[in-house]
Design brief:
single chain; about 220 residues; two-stranded antiparallel ribbon; 11 strands
């Protein structure tokens, strides 16, 4: 575990990695212990918010230079976003689960530490994550599943994060287990976080391009 010593005071209500109080958890046991302490099992998901930019849904990836869409409305996309700031999952109790996994085996989790209306600290938010993950709204958060590895994963060292050598287990991915056998899976990819909705067949759930467009906000 790496202590961050943040105070949860965010200048101009903009997210700051250093100001967030959540510690950096680097082993499956640390993540399980913190998750269990949050007491959020059996709570219904009411909203999902990406604090910052969804890089895979940047407009330049979806439209040509003349602003013409590159895909037909019925083309299916995975329910997935690539981010580098936290994901906020609001629960029916009014609590918020805040989670970030964008560096190798280094997860940050908290409850009600980030303002509900917090703004991006880096790039402007370009997507309504609740619309991308509408398949998860109304589901119950049942637990946490962690895929571990004994191989020290590659990390970029963002925010000065380093991993201990010779650790018994490292975090490869983690999944929030939902009702109806769904999951919200989080993985680190370079210094980005990959968040994907998974179905009962353990495959990414899909959203039509027509609905992707409805989820896009006014940002390049």
């Amino acid at each position: 575990m790496l202590k961050v010593n943040g105070h949860n005071m965010f200048a101009n209500n903009a997210f700051s990695w250093d100001s967030w109080s959540a510690d950096v958890l680097q082993s499956p046991k640390e993540v399980r212990d913190i998750f269990n302490a949050l007491d959020i099992r059996e709570k219904t998901i009411s909203d999902i918010k990406s604090v910052g930019y969804a890089y895979n849904l940047a407009t330049y990836r979806l439209a040509d230079d003349d602003d013409q869409w590159l895909y037909a409305d019925d083309v299916c996309f995975p329910c997935c976003i690539v981010i580098d700031e936290p994901l906020i999952i609001s629960l029916g109790t009014g609590d918020r689960l805040e989670i970030e996994f964008s560096e190798a085996s280094s997860v940050r989790i908290s409850k009600n530490c980030l303002p509900a209306d917090i703004k991006p600290g880096l790039n402007a938010n370009n997507v309504d994550a609740a619309k991308i993950f509408s398949c998860c709204l109304g589901e119950t958060l049942l637990g946490l599943e962690i895929t571990a590895t004994d191989v020290n994963p590659f990390g970029t060292g963002s925010h000065g994060i380093t991993l201990p050598e010779g650790q018994d287990e490292y975090i490869e991915s983690l999944s929030l287990l939902l009702s109806n056998y769904k999951k919200i899976k989080l993985e680190a990819w370079a210094d980005y976080g990959l968040v994907t909705a998974i179905n009962a067949e353990n495959k990414p759930m899909e959203i039509s391009f027509a609905n992707v467009k409805l989820a896009l906000l006014n940002s390049d």
